[in-house]
């Protein structure tokens, strides 16, 4: 397992402290949440974030259940059009990823506007084939559906996937089904479920089968990027996110707030130095 970086430890603790106070934790509840968060560092980073969230949810309940829907309604109130170029599709997908909770001690919801678009290895998207599109935060899923519709024009058959369990403001499988039915007018996008908190890059059988039966994985957000680095799957993968934490931003020469679309193997090599 990769050694924890100082920035990543601060990010993990900051996220759960932010969540705990947002959920009105008592001192005793806060102690339990923080001790479990520190204990979660025995796991790979992406799993530590999921485990510590699960403990917090058991203590305080799903503190973002209403906020997720409120942020989604804000997105759905906007004019939503299918992008016309690959650059626009990637920018749109990354723009939605600015929606988030606390990240890294400095990033807070609504504090950043989207910066420049950084693309590394995205030529693979011109190939066409079968694509798994793993979503992230709920309020950005409408943008993801529009991006997926553009990828179809490049010859991709798109299957969108989400986890079964809730995590922070991420979309669940039930959320994804609802939005694809609402926004995919011709019904061409398929939807699949990842069990529990399994990411598309975990070693669970369902994720492995989806990766092996498709030509590329396009995965959104920091949790999926961390999971790729943690588990190093062999299948071709493109990671799309808004740069919100310093280690991932520095790995691709981005600044906080920039939009990033990078081939997984390139990010892995850069991040591990």
From TrEMBL:
Gene3D superfamilies: Uncharacterised protein PF01937, DUF89, domain 3. Residues 83-260 form the Damage-control phosphatase ARMT1-like metal-binding domain. It comes from the Archaea. Pfam families: ARMT1-like_dom (PF01937). InterPro entries: ARMT-1-like_metal-bd_sf, ARMT1-like_metal-bd. Coiled coil: none annotated. This is Damage-control phosphatase ARMT1-like metal-binding domain-containing protein.
């Amino acid at each position: 397992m990769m050694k924890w970086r100082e920035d990543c430890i601060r990010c993990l603790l900051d996220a759960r402290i932010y969540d705990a106070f947002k959920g009105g934790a008592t001192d005793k509840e806060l102690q339990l949440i923080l001790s479990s968060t520190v204990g979660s560092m025995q796991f790979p980073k992406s799993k530590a974030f999921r485990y510590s969230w699960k403990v917090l949810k058991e203590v305080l309940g799903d503190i973002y259940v209403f906020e997720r829907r409120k942020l989604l309604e804000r997105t759905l109130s906007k004019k939503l059009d299918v992008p016309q170029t690959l650059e626009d599709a990637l920018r749109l997908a990354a723009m939605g990823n600015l929606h988030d909770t606390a990240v890294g001690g400095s990033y807070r919801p609504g504090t950043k506007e989207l910066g420049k678009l950084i693309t590394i290895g995205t030529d693979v998207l011109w190939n066409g084939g079968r694509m798994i599109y793993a979503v992230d935060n709920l309020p950005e899923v409408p943008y993801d559906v529009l991006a997926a519709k553009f990828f179809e024009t490049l010859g991709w058959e798109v299957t969108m996937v989400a986890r079964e369990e809730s995590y922070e403001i991420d979309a669940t499988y039930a959320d994804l089904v609802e939005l694809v039915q609402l926004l995919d007018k011709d019904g061409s996008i398929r939807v699949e479920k990842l069990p529990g908190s399994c990411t598309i890059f975990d070693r669970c059988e369902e994720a492995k089968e989806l990766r092996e039966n498709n030509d590329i994985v396009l995965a959104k957000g920091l949790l999926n990027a961390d999971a790729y680095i943690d588990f190093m799957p062999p299948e071709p993968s493109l990671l799309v996110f808004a740069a919100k934490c310093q280690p991932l931003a520095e790995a691709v020469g981005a600044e906080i707030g920039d939009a990033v679309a990078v081939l997984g193997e390139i990010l892995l090599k850069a991040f591990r130095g």
